[in-house]
């Protein structure tokens, strides 16, 4: 018991001596970190704002802002450590040695970071674009060094490690997604009239892109119908809503125009 009390007393004396010796340095270090954190946020926002004013996309602007914040905070830490009695040189050397070993152990993480830098600087897509990759699609919400997040019409967040994006085939349709529909009309109907009716009905639908024309044409000839294909562009956040509304409008327009939508049928002939 006496030995434990002696150890506690010795530890207390060491802490007290450290606080007495470095009290002003500790106070100064706290002030420096507060100022550094404040400057990091302000300068990060300034750099990001300047980048946006120069016409850079939001992805690069955020990247430059983040780099500015990290640089200022790192500088503040380097200034603070000597004031607390910590030598920076051996500390940096130790970090380098640990970093080399850790780098070999986290190659997957580093590959995500290198892929993230590639995405940010090559700008194969930016925040707000609609991309399809690895069997998923959605609007790019954020691009980080390690991963990219997408969002869809249901409000889901889709997180993709960047190493699974770089090197893959990416479909980038900017802010819209192509809406592909199909319907069949009877062989006795006038396909030109049906195409005009469909285009007219879809022109009433709010939510389709006004910059890209709706495409309607004969896609093929089935056993019981002339197959028409419809291609339009809808906002990704309204993709399924636009699909359902478009199908309803097309069905109603063809019905009102007395254009028959046939069902599968087979003709049987009796031979003598």
Q: What's the topology here?
A:
Elements: H1 2-53, H2 58-83, H3 88-105, H4 107-122, E1 130-133, E2 136-143, E3 147-151, E4 157-161, E5 171-172, E6 176-185, H5 191-202, E7 215-221, E8 226-235, H6 239-256
Antiparallel strand pairs: 1-2, 1-5, 2-3, 3-4, 6-8, 7-8
Explain what this protein looks like in three dimensions.
The chain is an alpha+beta fold and 272 residues long. The chain has three domains: 2-105, Helix Hairpins (Orthogonal Bundle); 124-172, SH3 type barrels (Roll); 176-256, 2-Layer Sandwich (Alpha-Beta Plaits), CATH 3.30.70. Helix content is 52%, strand content 19%. It has helices at residues 2-53, 58-83, 88-105, 107-122, 191-202, 239-256; strands at residues 130-133, 136-143, 147-151, 157-161, 171-172, 176-185, 215-221, 226-235. The strands form two sheets. It has a five-stranded antiparallel beta sheet. It starts with a helix and ends in a 16-residue tail after the last helix. The model has no long low-confidence stretch (mean pLDDT 81).
Summarize the structure.
With 272 residues, the chain is α+β, with helices and mostly antiparallel strands. It has six helices and eight strands; from the N terminus they run H-H-H-H-E-E-E-E-E-E-H-E-E-H.
């Amino acid at each position: 018991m006496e030995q434990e009390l002696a150890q506690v007393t010795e530890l207390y004396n060491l802490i007290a001596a450290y606080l007495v010796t470095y009290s002003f340095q500790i106070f100064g270090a706290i002030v420096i970190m507060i100022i550094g954190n404040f400057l990091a946020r302000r300068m990060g926002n300034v750099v990001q704002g300047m980048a946006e004013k120069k016409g850079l996309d939001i992805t690069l602007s955020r990247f430059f802002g983040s780099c500015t914040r990290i640089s200022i905070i790192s500088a503040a830490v380097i200034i603070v450590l000597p004031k607390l009695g910590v030598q920076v040189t051996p500390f940096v050397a130790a970090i380098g040695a640990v970093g080399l070993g850790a780098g070999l152990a986290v190659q997957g993480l580093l590959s995500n970071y290198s892929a993230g830098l590639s995405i940010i600087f090559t700008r194969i897509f930016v925040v707000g674009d609609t991309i399809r990759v690895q069997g998923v699609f959605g609007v790019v919400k954020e691009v980080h060094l390690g991963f990219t997040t997408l969002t869809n019409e249901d409000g889901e967040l889709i997180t993709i490690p960047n190493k699974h994006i770089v090197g893959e085939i990416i479909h980038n349709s900017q802010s819209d997604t192509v809406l592909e529909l199909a319907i069949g009309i009877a062989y006795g109907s006038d396909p030109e009239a049906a195409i005009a009716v469909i285009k007219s009905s879809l022109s009433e639908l709010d939510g389709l892109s006004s910059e890209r024309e709706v495409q309607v044409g004969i896609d093929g000839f089935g056993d019981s119908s002339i197959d028409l294909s419809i291609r339009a562009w809808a906002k990704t956040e309204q993709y399924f809503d636009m699909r359902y509304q478009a199908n309803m409008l097309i069905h109603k327009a063809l019905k009102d125009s007395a254009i028959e939508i046939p069902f599968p049928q087979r003709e049987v002939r009796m031979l003598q």
